[in-house]
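Appendix B: complex inputs.
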Amino acid sequence: KQEVTQIPAALSVPEGENLVLNCSFTDSAIYNLQWFRQDPGKGLTSLLLIQSSQREQTSGRLNASLDKSSGRSTLYIAASQPGDSATYLCAVTSGTYKYIFGTGTRLKVLA
Amino acid sequence: DTGVSQDPRHKITKRGQNVTFRCDPISEHNRLYWYRQTLGQGPEFLTYFQNEAQLEKSRLLSDRFSAERPKGSFSTLEIQRTEQGDSAMYLCASSLDGTGPPDTEAFFGQGTRLTVV
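Resulting structure:
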């Protein structure tokens, strides 16, 4: 059974710092991995999708890497801003075609 | 196209009542998912459709839950005889995937917040 874990559960950093969020999964036979952002009480916003054959994806200040063999992905956020404060979720698809989510990392960027 | 749309955004109901939620996916997206999310947790899978066919249902989806996607466009999720434990955010997502494994982004709606009192 696929399980997804995100560490840390919460993170508070001063504005301008570079930071790394971690996601690990137990079954390396994934189709893809997607990172999402969720603001309080809102739905999920897609940030980056990494196919199983890819090693990384970049969008603006965000860079996501994937090491399928070790069951890990990282989301790197450069030059963090208060507007980046949100919960970040990673999800993988494997086996059947549904997404399996971690419990998220709550990020607070202090001005 | 403005993305995945869910209605209503909020619903308060008394225990034992039936509720129905609607999801309008992104136009031409053939795959549609329903998820449930409780406070502090990641979304949990409920069910998904490939066009109008419901291909998988979670064990979380008890007999009180039913989902439909009659014409392969919008979908409804009905909960009968609601219980306090049904209080959660119900999220819908869609993607443009063929019949094989997902290889495109899934886009989520803003969710329907259900409170059972």
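The longest strand of chain A covers residues 30-38.
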